[in-house]
Amino acid sequence: MHVFEVRNAELIESITKQAAEQGITYAAIVALIGAVDSFTVSTNPAGDATAHTYSSYPLPAEMTATGEIVAGKPHIHAVMAVQGDRTIGGHLHQAHLHTSFARAYVIPSGHHVAVPEDEQIVFELFPDDRAPTGQGRINDTRVAPRPQTSTAANEKE
Questions:
Q1: What is the pLDDT of residues 65-74, one digit of tens each?
Q2: Secondary structure, 3-state, the chain
Q3: From CA 50, how far away is CA 17, in angstroms rounded?
């Protein structure tokens, strides 16, 4: 088992770099713990399991996660605990650490996982320049919500 420690860095980039330095291209991330200053996750919108909605949170959070490294790229599912006894979860695309640290416990694997082209989105990094400053969240607009039909609107026609 390898332990990757991350401080004063972006989490996904650091795990990617440390895995490459250790020659790890496929692995299980059996535990990932720490605290972050801000993060971006994606989840599937209701009604479309093939799409992803990105949400950035410029909030400190306690983190627990698991995942895998596939072809050298981390694929992490995380649960982030934020103020007010709330949790936020999803595919972790970005997490910045400046105040605290994180540790990933990684077990290399000889098993190579093939990821179909239409599932590559789970490895995509979220552009940092779109994250808001201060408190709150911003939802990415790359995934348009499905139109909703309103019974009241239909009755007026």
A1: 999 999 999 9
A2: CEEEEEEEEEHHHHHHHHHHHCCCCCEEEEEEEEEECEEEEEECCCCCCCCCEEEEECCCEEEEEEEEEECCEEEEEEEEEECCCEEEEEEEEEEEEEEEEEEEEEEECCCCCCCCHHHHHHHCCCCHHHCCCCCCCEECCCCCCCCCCCHHHHHHC
A3: 29
Mean pLDDT value across residues 88-99 = 94
pLDDT band at 60 (very low <50, low <70, confident <90, very high): very high
CA 156 – CA 117 distance, rounded (Å): 44
Question: CA quadruple 41, 111, 104, 66: dihedral positive or negative?
Answer: positive
For residue 67, list its beta bridge partners: 29, 76
Query: Residue 34: left if φ>0, alpha if ψ -120 to 50, beta else—which one?
Result: left
**How many Å apart are CA 88 and CA 108, to the nearest integer?**
28
The span from the CA of 47 to the CA of 133, in Å, is 31
How sure is the predictor about 116, in pLDDT bands with cuts at 50, 70 and 90? low
